[in-house]
Amino acid sequence: MPGCFKKTWFGLASLLSFSSFLLIIIALAIPKWLSGKILCQTGVDLVNATDPELVKFIGDIYYGLFRGCKVRQCGLGSRHSQFAIFPHMVKQLNTGLHVMILIFLFVAMALALVSMGFAVLNMITVPYRAINGPAGVCLWNVLAGGIIALAIGSFMAAVKFHDLTDRIANFQEKIFQFVVVEEQYEESFWICVASATVHAANLLVVAISQIPIPEIKNKIEEATVTAEDILY
Known about the structure:
Butyryl-CoA Dehydrogenase, subunit A, domain 3; Clarin 2
């Protein structure tokens, strides 16, 4: 059986893995991966607006992996509209990349649970095989953290190189043309970053659990036998 020191650290490792699983679920549920400002270029061109007047033509947009919201400002007041990525909008985006992001996150959720299972196994027993021991816990954490990092990198690539915000802002717009003037990552994105960081922290936790702790033994006093004791 593992000692109390190892049990404590492997218990912490299991909790961290489970927290990563929950963080990914939260990131998928919250529809705020990125927000931005969109300029109604068509409205600006129609009235030949100058710099002080451009504020009237700047709306807002935010979206996640499944849905989002757009506020259009084209000189006639703000107009709010909700939209869903699936099933129609995804055809206008980079479908393969968008689906790959989702697959990466679902795989990372599974790996986080596997990592938690291995940590619990090491908390209650000492596995005979090395792959089931601390090395296995580290392996699954590296895989889970790496998969989350791939999902984050894929989303950033979709935003920067595939004009994701621009495509979403102009989806099914037949009259007005929108230009993205500002973008920033929101809470869901940073929650995924935190999830990957949790797995990196788990590697440190497992490393600390392997620090050898000297066992405290009670000193047994040696009995002194004398000739008188023998005679007695």
